[in-house]
Inverse folding.
């Protein structure tokens, strides 16, 4: 039996491999040691029936998922929740036919999945930057941008707000930038540009250097696919027109996909998302609300609801014109959503821990013997 060839790390680097050579992270090294002969690859597409992996730019091969990933995703003692399975951007070890191991994530952008039972869905894994794309048209919505930033920051990813369609008649880039002044003051980069202009798109080069990974998030019709085509220098991604009456677009991108860029970076394009529910793991400061959090700490009462209580520093800042009232209202709404999601997450984790503990007791007990009384 011949020894497996060493991975082509130069090609892997083109699709976001974090190092010039082999893995430098101890956890990744341990995974390699546990699966001798396995090879690394990145998840480039995720479908209901399986995965497409890549080990070089513009390549892809199908791989079967582990048996435990094929079961219904649940928070149980022996279950594998949705967010613990591979997603686009993840690095895995494979044998050419099947995924053998999911390598530890360095970052992950997640949202709460739709449905009555608590689940988390990974939007993109192992990305350095998230371009939050929003058009300067009737669909421009600062509150939605703040919601995206909350999820992005919660995953440990650098957010960059990209306002597209600056070339459209009636687009007011200055007004868009002014509406996001609170975010800019918190250090969030905000750029307004024409996504069809390659020279304008070059402003994103600082976040797309060799070996870096970025993801595009935003509503349908925001210009994500147009932006991708400009970065590629070719019309590879399908684009579509938006409806005139509300500037909403159709889903021209139907699934998440990883794309190698000429710059040496790689990009994950995502479909537009209608629901952006927090997971409960986020910090409000990560959503560009650090200034409001700092003011809240100065309120007279620790449990101040910022609804008119005496000594409320947040309301005082609004009245002085230092804070946008709509931004504060969104902060309060997201604060309540995060708190509610955190409660649901804690309940799920407690249920899983209880089930795991009961399972251990049952496994240790000899068959037919009743449990010992305390």
């Amino acid at each position: 039996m011949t020894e497996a060839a060493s991975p082509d790390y130069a090609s892997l680097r083109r699709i976001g491999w974090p190092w010039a050579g082999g893995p430098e992270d101890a956890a990744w090294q341990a995974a390699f040691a546990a699966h001798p002969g396995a090879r690394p690859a990145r998840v480039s597409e995720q479908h209901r029936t399986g995965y497409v992996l890549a080990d070089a730019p513009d390549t892809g091969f199908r791989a079967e998922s582990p048996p435990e990933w094929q079961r219904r995703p649940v928070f149980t003692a022996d279950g594998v929740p949705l967010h613990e399975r591979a997603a686009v951007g993840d690095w895995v070890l494979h044998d050419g036919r099947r995924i053998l191991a999911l390598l530890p994530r360095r970052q992950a952008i997640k949202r709460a999945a739709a449905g009555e039972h608590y689940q988390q869905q990974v939007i993109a894994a192992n990305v350095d930057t998230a371009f939050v794309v929003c058009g300067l048209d009737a669909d421009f919505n600062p509150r939605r941008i703040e919601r995206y930033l909350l999820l992005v920051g919660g995953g440990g990813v650098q957010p960059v707000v990209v306002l597209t369609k600056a070339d459209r008649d009636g687009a007011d880039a200055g007004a868009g930038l002014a509406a996001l002044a609170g975010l800019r003051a918190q250090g969030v980069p905000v750029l307004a540009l024409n996504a069809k202009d390659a020279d304008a798109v070059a402003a994103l080069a600082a976040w797309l250097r060799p070996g870096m990974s970025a993801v595009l998030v935003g509503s349908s019709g925001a210009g994500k696919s147009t932006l991708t085509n400009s970065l590629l220098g070719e019309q590879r991604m399908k684009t579509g027109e938006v409806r005139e009456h509300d500037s909403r677009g159709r889903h021209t991108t139907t699934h998440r996909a990883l794309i190698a860029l000429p710059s040496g970076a790689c990009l994950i394009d995502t479909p537009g998302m209608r629901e952006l529910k927090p997971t409960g793991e986020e910090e409000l400061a990560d959503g560009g609300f650090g200034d409001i959090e700092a003011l809240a700490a100065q309120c007279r009462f620790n449990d101040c609801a910022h609804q008119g209580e005496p000594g409320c520093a947040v309301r005082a800042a609004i009245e002085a014109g230092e804070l946008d009232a709509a931004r504060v209202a969104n902060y309060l709404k997201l604060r309540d959503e995060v708190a509610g999601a955190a409660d649901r997450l804690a309940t799920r984790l407690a249920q899983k821990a209880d089930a795991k503990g009961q399972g251990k007791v049952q496994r240790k007990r000899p068959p037919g013997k009743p449990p010992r009384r305390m």
